[in-house]
Amino acid sequence: MKNKLFMLMLVLVIAVLAACGTKDKEVTTGNEGTNTEDKKVLVMGTSADYPPFEYVDTAVSEDIIGFDVDLAKLIGEKLGYEIKIENIDFNSLIPSIQAGKVDFVLAGMSPTPERDKVVDFSIAYNETVQMVVTKKDSGIQTVEDLAGKTVGVQVSSIQEELANEVAKTVDMTVESRNLIPEVFQDLMTKRFDAAIIEDIVAENYVKRNDDLAFFPVAIDDADYKAAVFPEGSELKAQFDEAIQELIDNGKIEELRQKWFVVEAE
Q: 24 lies in a domain?
């Protein structure tokens, strides 16, 4: 009888210990899942063909780097978000915002009336000047010299809009390419006589190629870069405040010095 009682008590003790172990395991797993679910992640859309704003230096790694990437990380740190980057063709960035595939875009994008109808923009984080880039032996020195020439631009870009506007008064042909490297490739092979590119990007290419030169396109209003959001997104106000703080404390100027000062090779 004592043996039966002992065995019964032993079974009960084992069952209790097993239940405690299972409970502890379930609590630990639950906590890890909550931490993962509570992590705040924002998906950033960009087009990684636009040095020094966003690009891949394949000689170093496959990571997307650049001014906009560093800026996004600074904003993420300030607002408590982890930033995940999606590489998307430039002309698909706004459709990706509208489809909810990304939370915001940082891609050297400038506001235009047409874009402003379907997305929201942050305050400006960088002003820019548009440049005509040519081969040095092209004989092109002014916008008027583009008459009868073929000018390359990136599709769906502000430079494409500008080129088409110029073409209304200067008899030139405008051709678009998906990626900036494709524009420069066609310029170097003389398929294009010139290209319209913003100043910082143009300078990156010109300082690395002695055959190229550039001059500004005179326009009435300065272009500027801004982050892009779905219409009505709460992120706009958060980013506006963060960008202004980064301007005021000199962090954006530090990024300009890091990414926009180009050394000739």
A: no
pLDDT at 153 over 70: yes
Q: How many residues does the chain have?
A: 265
* Burial per residue of 134-151, b for 16 or more beta-carbon CB atoms within 10 angstroms, e otherwise: bbeebebeebebbeebbb
Q: What is the pTM of this model?
A: 0.80
Nearby residues of 82 by Cβ (< 8 Å), 6 or more positions away:
39, 40, 41, 42, 76
- DSSP string spanning 84-97? EEEE--GGGHHHHH
pLDDT digits (tens, 9 = 90+) for 200-221: 999 999 999 999 999 999 876 7
Q: How many domains does the chain have?
A: 2
Quote the CA–CA distance of 153 and 110 in Å, as a whole number.
Answer: 15
**Would you say residue 25 lies in a domain?**
no
Give me the phi and psi of 72, to 5 degrees please: -60, -40
CATH value at residue 247:
3.40.190.10
Position 31 scores a pLDDT of 29
